[in-house]
Amino acid sequence: MAIRRGIEKFDWYTILLYVALVVIGWVNIYSVSLSDISTSFLDFDQVYVKQLLWISLCLVLIIFILGFDAKFYERFSSIIYIISLLSLLGLFVFGKNVNGATSWYAVGAFSIQPSEFAKIATALALSKYVGDLHTNIGEFKYQLRSFLIIALPVLFIILQPDPGSALIYIAFIFPLYREGLHFIYLLLGFIIAALFIITLAFGVGWAAISVILIAGFLYFKNRKKRSNLFKYSIIVLACIGFSFSVNYIFNQVFEQRHRDRFNIVLGKEVDIKGIGYNTNQSEIAIGSGGWIGKGWTQGTQTKGNFVPEQHTDFIFSTVGEEWGFLGSIAVIILFIALLIRILQLAERQKTQFSRFYGYCVASVIFIHFFINIGMVTGLFPTVGIPLPFFSYGGSSLWGFTILLFIFIRLDASNFINR
Amino acid sequence: MRKLLLVAIIVITGVVFITRLFYLQVYNTSFQKLSENNAVKVLYDYPQRGYIFDRNGILIVSNQPSYDVMFIPKEVKTLDTLEFCDLLKITKEDFISILKKAHKYSPRLPSVLIPQLTKSEYAYLSEKMHKYQGFYIQKRSLRDYQVSHSSNVLGYIAEVNKTIIKKNPYYHMGDLIGSAGVEQQYEKVLRGIKGVKYIQKDHFNRDIGAYKKGVFDTLPIKGRDIMLTIDETLQKYGEELMINKRGGIVAIEPATGEILALITAPNYDPALLVGRERSKNFTKLWYDTISRPLFDRVLQGEYPPGSTFKTLIALIGLQEKIIDTKERIYCNGSYNYGGKKPLSCHQHISPLSMVGAIAKSCNSYFCTVYRRIIEKYSTPQEGIDNFRRHLESFGLGNYMGYDLPAGRPGLIPDSKFYNRWYEYPKYKWYATATISNAIGQGEIVLTPMQMVNFTAAIANRGWYYKPHILKNVIGTDTISKLYTERYNTTIDKKYFEPVVQGMFDVYNKGTASFLQIPGIEICGKTGTSENYIKINGKRMQLTDHSIFVAFAPKDNPTIAIAVFIENGYWGSRWAGRIAGLMIEKYIKGEISRKDMEAFVLNGSLEEEYAKPYNGEPFNINY
To answer: Tell me, what's the pLDDT at B32?
Structure first.
């Protein structure tokens, strides 16, 4: 009875946006994988067939998620979190090494990437902790514990090592800020992420130079407050120190296979034709689309497989090439609409748990969207993370689907309980 | 505020992405081109070049398949250079320098590594090519010459250079183009249009089918065959006669302006400029600055016409009515015009009227006529310009407009020329200052082609068609209007008869009487022109050029000819003999004057040509 009434209250607007993104994503995956010589439409070696399977299984997953009572997620969040951590730890024993990273479990012919699910667990656990009546995120004690909840999965994921997946945990800074975290943390989070990427992608030198330039600029802008000089120097030194330590850990502590993995994520390793091959090819593909694109399955760059990882991380370049400027902005607008809708829903939640979780969902999707499109359009260094709902991959698709639909379930509960 | 931060960041991110996409996809169009370079390979299908036939349908030039080793610098992978060079029979240094040059030209476009392999070389190589990434073999069609002469007429095929590619986008690196002669002139007709195939590539540069299902692909269109006005037999015979001589022979059919033979000597075998030895051979020909085989003496050589010019003086004299055919003029062995020394003449009976003067080539007679032509007007300037007007109507003094790419205008000086020459008005000049023109020396120079043209105009008694080499493009019946338009000279028809008679008497009883061909009434005129050369900055006279113009038969002529032999001494010695043999060969098809033929075939002027270069003092004209 509760379920029936609930269905009517599910936010169909969000679900529709979700369906649109998944369908458009599959259409583009189909176009990319068409270049391989195919035997029949339902050939399970074909990427688009596999993705179709993941999508169908999502349907089952969705029904399952929506079937649980909303309370279940809050109540069991700690257990889910612990299971998730164990699954990450288990990788070091049972994991399969792919491209130098032990981030997969092999289940028969398929692989599961637990880090895609760890985001959900972390979001739930954090929501529960912040949503607790005793917790006041403005206080340092609670901040520290919150960060610990985030840091554990990050640590395990970095050790796999899968720096790309670890990087997106920066997203949790936004919901914490919403709940009262000081602005300085946001800034700090941004600086850490930026330094991390700049150091590994361009080296300590560039990181130091950019820090000094920015600090210098800020200092001379606020010259009147002379006393700040000491503060500025400390911050600059701390930043450079961080950059050095990232560099040190990378070069001294990590083994070559770790470094290789980082380099793959940062686009250094597959860079067979000089720095920026991926980005360059991706820009060419997108740029050649023009206003309306070359038409579905007509993309020359797509057909020629010029863009590496086009069906996964670089799927958006296909959109750019085959659907042109109009198709690209349509996808961008779909994402923005989804994100804003989620935030809208979050704000109308009655419990802090649900609101916080809604913010987590929006932030996680946003960070993926931000880094992925930024990378594909050449605004951002190459960081190998997927485009939510779009990129090929079962774990990633399931992860985002679960993440989103738990929130849809939580949102619907507002009305059921009324 | 806390509610709005993430929304704001999301919206700003959206705006930034859309702006970036606008820049990439709409504003900056260079990506579209990059994409095409990247993903689409263009393959050309070269059509067969048109065949070339002579006027009687004898095949002169056909085609043979040829294979170029091509490469795309960007796609060349590390390879065993030594083994590869060994296979291609080139040195490592050459190989590396070609690679570097090609990379400079374009890393993405194909360049030629080794042009024009033979069939057997191709068979050997094609088995091993797959080992070398970035290299492939492009099939082309090469010329196959059926004759070993006429290279000056036919021209040659060369690889296009960057200048041509820039000017004409039809051509790409490694394409072939007609570079001289008929091949250049009728390039567009002969070459046809190459077909294009666009091939979609993947990032391993593998072909994955036709681009856009082949809608942009085109089929090659075969080049058209052409028929030349050249008579292959006559051309071949002429080249044989010219062995060991330098100069030119040009024969045209007066009634049509069709060029029957166009021979320059020394010449080269056109097959030398085909195949792998091409560039070596070309360099050799190009740097032979002494015998200059690439210099077409008929079209580009400018020589004083010597006494052959007297026919024109006579015609102009008659037209200007300053002399008639009856007036006799005395000659005492020279013509004294008041200069430092009189202009000498040779031994002959005196006085002579026009016909006799032409037959005997009397200098005094024509100096007198020339003076009268110039002095008819109140100033020598007007006289000269009027004189020039007549000559221009014979196609002299400018480019002639025939359908071959080489040529020179010659020179018929006008009053401005002499004003500058003599610094008028500071110094005045008179007809006597230009008296050498009367006997075809002095400032006047003509190309042998111009000499034959005025001869044809005389043969036609007053008109000519522009000489041309294309009889027709097979399969079409149009010929340029330029070559069907009759050009009339300024001389009335009636004045030609006495001159023709004089030229007939040159053979009958004049300077070429020993060259008579039984059964053919030939009209001709000998010419002997003085010439000079600078050796180490010192002006030295060389043995005279031997010149002869003729047409036959006297009535309804079928051939007009000009023969020019460098340093051949007097007109009838070499040029006259050759002209006679050519005429007989053309009209009768066989030679009756075997003595004359033997003289020419066995004779050599090489010793004469060596004189200025062996550093020793030498005599001339013996």
So the answer is: 62
> pLDDT digits over A199-215, tens only?
877 778 888 888 888 88
How many angstroms separate the CA of residue A12 from the nearest CA in chain B?
A: 21
Residue A78 is predicted with a pLDDT of: 92
pLDDT for res A87: 92
Predicted local distance difference test score (pLDDT) of residue A1: 41
| Calpha distance A406→A10 (Å, rounded) | 11
Residues spanned by the domain of B362: 232-283+292-613
Query: What's the mean pLDDT in B246-272?
Result: 91
- Contact between B38 and A306 using a beta-carbon 8 Å cutoff: yes
Residue B17 covered by a domain: no
Per the structure block, which two tokens stand in for B472? Answer: 């027709």
Give me the residue from B9, B34, B211 closest to A284, CB to CB: B34
How many contacts (CB atoms, under 8 Å) link A and B? Answer: 127
| CATH code for position B447 | 3.40.710.10
Q: Which region, left, alpha or beta, applies to residue A321 given φ > 0 means left and ψ of -120 to 50 means alpha? A: alpha
**What is the rounded average pLDDT for all residues in chain A?**
82
In the 8-state DSSP scheme, what is residue A250?
I
The average confidence (pLDDT) of chain B is 84
Phi, psi for residue B249 in degrees, rounded to 5? -125, 135
Q: Which of residues 174-233 of A touch B (CB under 8 A)?
A: 174, 177-178, 180, 186
> Which of A306, A373, A377 lies closest to B203 in CB terms?
A306
Closest CA to A362 of B5, B15, B18: B5
Asked whether the CA dihedral A163, A165, A166, A170 is positive or negative, the reply is: positive
B339 and B435 share a domain? yes
B25:A287 CB<8 A: yes
Give the pLDDT of residue A272: 43
List chain A residues with pLDDT less than 50.
1-2, 6, 36-38, 270-275, 418
Entry pTM = 0.60
Q: Maximum distance among all alpha carbons in chain B?
A: 127
- The predicted pLDDT at position A418 comes to 46
Q: Are residues B256 and B219 in the same domain?
A: no
Determine contact: A142 vs chain B, CB below 8 A: no
Measured CA to CA, the distance from residue A397 to residue B281 in angstroms comes to 69
> Cα–Cα distance between A134 and A122 in angstroms, integer?
19
The answer to whether residues B203 and B270 belong to one domain is: no
Residue in B closest to A291 by C-alpha: B26
**Domain count of chain B?**
2
Residue ranges of chain B whose CB lies within 8 Å of a chain A CB: 2-3, 5-7, 9-11, 13-14, 16-18, 20-22, 24-26, 28-32, 34-36, 38-40, 200-204, 208, 211-212
Q: What is the pLDDT of residues B22-58, one digit of tens each?
A: 888 888 766 666 566 556 677 788 888 899 999 998 9
Closest CA to B551 of B489, B485, B486, B464: B464
Would you state the pLDDT for residue A33?
78
Q: Residue B471: is its pLDDT beyond 80?
A: yes
B107 to chain A nearest CA, in Å? 14
Q: Is A288 within 8 Å of B22 when comparing Cβ atoms?
A: no
Amino acid B339 reads: G
Which is more confident, A32 or B535? A32
Tell me whether residues A347 and B31 touch, CB distance under 8 A: no
What is the predicted ipTM?
0.86
- CB contact, 8 Å: A306 with chain B? yes
How many of the other CB atoms lie within 10 Å of CB of A25?
25
